[in-house]
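User: Okay, second chain of the day. Same drill as before: sequence in, structure tokens out.
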Amino acid sequence: MQTDIAKELAQAKLTYDTMAKRILSNKVILAWILKSVMPEYADIEINTIQNYIENDPEISSVSVLPGKTNTGKIQGDATEDKIPGEGNIYFDIRFHARLPKESGTADIIINIEAQKNFHPGYSLVTRGIFYCARLLSSQAGIDFVIPKYDDIKKVVSIWVCMDAPDYMGNAITSYQLNKKDLVPGYPDKPEEYDKISLVMICLNDKCENKLEITNLLNTIFTNQKSYQEKRKKLETEFQI
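Assistant: Same drill. Structure tokens below.
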């Protein structure tokens, strides 16, 4: 594991596509991300979280588009609408992770996106919501069979956004469904609606940084440090 990370750190143009995805898909890096932004893992040791990540994460192999995400249906044919003439789009990284028993959920589907361009001409938050919706709807016929909607797994899309503007600095923001009573009376059961979470991790290696996870990710992706400096910091501060 350590050898794989060292090899990736030694590569040029690390912030671009392939290298970024390969670094982020390493289980020790994923464990740091999950511990930092998901309350389900906040009190769990990094080594234990790594054991919760099932199999090897899928890298750029699962389509985001309707009609192309489901690849192993329980029964029947795909019923989602296809988008004629559209090019294919893939999730950067997608994997399943088990959750602690006390969380009340068996497992969760997680997507990690490495976003180099902070201003691509559309809202990254809106795109992230679309990815969450696709992770949710694509479970039909795989993780649950209609009408057993209670079997739907929670989905989390985490966006690692590099080169955030200086006014934003190193920031982390989370979006999720919440219950709001317009007229009180309906019982509150979070397990029924806590199904979608979108997290934006914004990185800026020129701004003040007090968070472990943004410190870790800035160390990996910055162009301001040499390979030797990065490796030393990862070893001494993060035991990687």
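Residues 35 and 181 are 31 Å apart (CA to CA).

User: Thanks, on to the next one.
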